[in-house]
């Protein structure tokens, strides 16, 4: 697999450079289309990069932000991706952006798929910037190899933008963008830090079996760039 790579000597260096690159891409999207869209992932890895991005001087009131996936928990739960984004990204200059959370009042994520699909119609697509992470099992967004829903999530003919996922190796039901929608992005970044994730990625690149490691479905795309630091 050929993969464009941006490798940095430190996480601080990555955060400074990557946040500037994202801001530039969003500015270009605004100039071209009047609005731009940013789709982000949760977890610990992007928090400080989000802080750096939040201080960039762009027309944030013309930026739509949503999540690639969400744990089906309320925002007062520490596992909430929306809460992390509000705390780390939707601050400073970026507080002017329009945020579209995924979690609804539905108790079961499956019952909210239609609502999430409808919500996405309000966001500028194709996405200008999509930032993905990767788990130790090779999942990305919430497309877990252990889940019964993985074939539907990876189906290139899947018509739904979102899919409800119940992983068996991780807590919480999830809502996730499907592969078909993830691929409809102008610029895709795989944001990783640490040696352990590097080893997982190297293993993933040895095969094309996306059912075993869903991140493989993204690695052979021409618009995907690895952003990594030790």
Your description of this structure?
By secondary structure, the chain is of the alpha/beta class. It has one domain (4-229): Rossmann fold. It contains eight helices and ten strands. It has helices at residues 11-33, 47-54, 81-88, 113-120, 150-154, 179-182, 195-204, 216-219, and strands spanning 4-8, 36-40, 63-67, 69-71, 98-100, 127-132, 162-165, 174-177, 185-193, 224-229. It has a seven-stranded parallel β-sheet with strand order 1-10-9-6-2-3-5, with helices on both faces. Helix 2 links the parallel strand 2 and strand 3. Helix 1 (11-33) crosses helix 2 (47-54). It is globular, with a radius of gyration of 16 Å. The model has no long low-confidence stretch (mean pLDDT 96).
Give a quick set of tags describing it.
7-stranded parallel sheet; alpha/beta; 8 helices; 230 residues; single chain; 10 strands; Rossmann fold; 30% helix
Largest sheet: 7 strands, parallel
Strand content: 15-25%
What is the CA-CA span between the terminal residues? 22 Å
Helix content: 25-40%
Number of domains: 1
Spans with pLDDT under 50 lasting ≥5 residues? none
Query: Helix-strand pattern, N to C?
Result: EHEHEEHEHEHEEHEHHE
User: What value does the Rg take, in angstroms?
Assistant: 16 Å
- In DSSP terms, counting alpha (H) and pi (I) runs of 4 or more, how many helices? 8
CATH topology: Rossmann fold
Q: Largest beta sheet: what is the strand line-up?
A: 1-10-9-6-2-3-5
Shape: globular
């Amino acid at each position: 697999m050929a993969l464009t790579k941006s490798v940095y000597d430190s996480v601080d260096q990555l955060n400074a450079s990557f946040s500037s690159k994202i801001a530039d891409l969003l500015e270009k999207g605004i100039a071209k289309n009047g609005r731009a869209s940013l789709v982000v992932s949760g977890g610990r890895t992007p928090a400080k990069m989000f802080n750096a991005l939040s201080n960039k001087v762009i027309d944030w009131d013309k930026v739509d932000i949503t999540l690639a996936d969400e744990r089906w928990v309320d925002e007062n739960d520490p596992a909430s991706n929306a809460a992390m984004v509000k705390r780390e990204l939707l601050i400073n200059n970026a507080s002017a952006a329009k945020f579209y959370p995924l979690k609804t009042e539905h108790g079961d994520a499956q019952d909210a798929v239609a609502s999430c699909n409808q919500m996405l119609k309000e966001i500028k697509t194709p996405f200008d910037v999509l930032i993905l992470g990767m788990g130790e099992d090779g999942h990305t967004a919430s497309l877990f190899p252990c889940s019964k829903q993985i074939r539907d999530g990876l189906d290139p003919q899947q018509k739904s933008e979102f899919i409800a996922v119940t992983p068996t190796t991780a807590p919480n039901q999830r809502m996730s963008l499907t592969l078909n929608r993830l691929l409809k992005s102008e610029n895709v970044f795989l944001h990783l830090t640490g040696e352990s994730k590097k080893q997982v990625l190297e293993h993933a690149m040895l095969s094309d079996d996306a059912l075993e490691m869903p991140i493989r479905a993204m690695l052979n795309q021409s618009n995907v760039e690895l952003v990594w630091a030790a």
